[in-house]
């Protein structure tokens, strides 16, 4: 497991340990909390830039879940483009090559936000061209995806790539829009909505993505699959959904109109192919927000 200390990684590790898997987590900076369960967690200190370190980590595993990624502090700045490509593309290529050489199954998280915008749910064969928003990051993730697909098609790599929507739920950073709105509502503070609340994306509950990743480590035909909710939700619609989650007390929504260009929206992700492969049924936004609230209240 790479990226095991992140929110999604912690969810995946918890599910795997609970199912009795022994997990090796490559740890770069932050240690991974040890979840309860019959499986065991082994932490290996190092990073993906060290081939010897990677070979050591791979020596005792059957499959690899690759979640590590570089998230730039400013998605619109070209200053972070080289780091995005080194970590998200080239390091992914190196890991994929090692997995192909050693016959290890690889499950990789790409992004579902590289598609050309559409008001309809996009399938996995829809056009990709992330030129309007977060281009340097999304292009690096798409490059990593292409490298993995090349290795799968031409070098025998057993690989499944998920194009993931906008994750929300327990463990996600407070700076993410859903976590921020939830924290504001719990504190009975207004939900500030910028740009008229027009931008939209496919919000997917983090537990759904974690379950898909764990399933794909064991089953599924290689290739590319969407991991979303199947529905696009605008920021304004999200604010109203959060308000409804806390319906027992008033939550004010403050909508500010756009003062410049409105950020591009991302399309909903068709889940038909993913549903056929794993029988997956996405969690609704209403149910996901309710589960998120329950988790946050336990932390108080």
Automatic annotation (TrEMBL):
Pfam family, one: Epimerase
Top-rank taxon, per record: Bacteria
InterPro entries found in the cross-reference section: Epimerase_deHydtase, NAD(P)-bd_dom_sf
Pathway(s) the chain acts in: Bacterial outer membrane biogenesis; LPS O-antigen biosynthesis
Every NAD-dependent epimerase/dehydratase domain range: 1-228
PANTHER family linked: DTDP-D-GLUCOSE 4,6-DEHYDRATASE-RELATED
Family the entry assigns: Belongs to the NAD(P)-dependent epimerase/dehydratase family.
This protein's name: NAD(P)-dependent oxidoreductase
């Amino acid at each position: 497991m790479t990226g095991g200390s992140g929110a999604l990684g912690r969810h995946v590790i918890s599910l795997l340990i609970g199912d009795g898997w022994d997990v090796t987590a490559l740890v770069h900076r932050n240690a991974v909390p040890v979840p309860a369960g019959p499986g065991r967690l082994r932490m290996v200190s190092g990073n993906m830039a060290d081939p010897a370190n990677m070979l050591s980590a791979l020596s005792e595993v059957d499959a690899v879940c690759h979640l590590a990624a570089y998230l730039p502090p400013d998605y619109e700045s070209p200053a972070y483009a080289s780091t995005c490509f080194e970590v998200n593309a080239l390091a992914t290529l190196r890991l994929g090559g090692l997995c192909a050489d050693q016959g290890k199954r690889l499950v990789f998280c790409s992004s579902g936000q590289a598609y050309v915008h559409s008001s309809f749910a996009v399938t996995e064969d829809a056009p990709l061209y992330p030129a309007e928003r977060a281009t340097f990051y999304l292009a690096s993730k798409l490059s990593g995806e292409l490298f993995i697909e090349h290795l799968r098609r031409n070098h025998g790599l057993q690989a499944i790539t998920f194009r993931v929507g906008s994750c929300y739920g327990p463990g996600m950073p407070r700076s993410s829009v859903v976590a921020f709105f939830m924290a504001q509502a719990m504190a009975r503070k207004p939900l500030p909505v910028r740009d008229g609340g027009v931008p939209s994306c496919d919000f997917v509950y983090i537990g759904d993505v974690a379950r898909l990743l764990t399933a794909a480590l064991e089953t599924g035909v290689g290739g590319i699959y969407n991991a979303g909710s199947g529905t696009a939700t605008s920021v304004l619609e999200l604010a109203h959904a959060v308000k409804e989650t806390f319906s027992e007390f008033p939550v004010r929504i403050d909508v500010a109109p756009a003062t410049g260009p409105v950020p591009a929206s991302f399309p909903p992700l068709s889940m038909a192919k993913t549903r056929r492969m794993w029988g997956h049924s996405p969690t609704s936004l209403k149910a996901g927000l309710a589960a998120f609230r329950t988790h946050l209240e336990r932390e108080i």
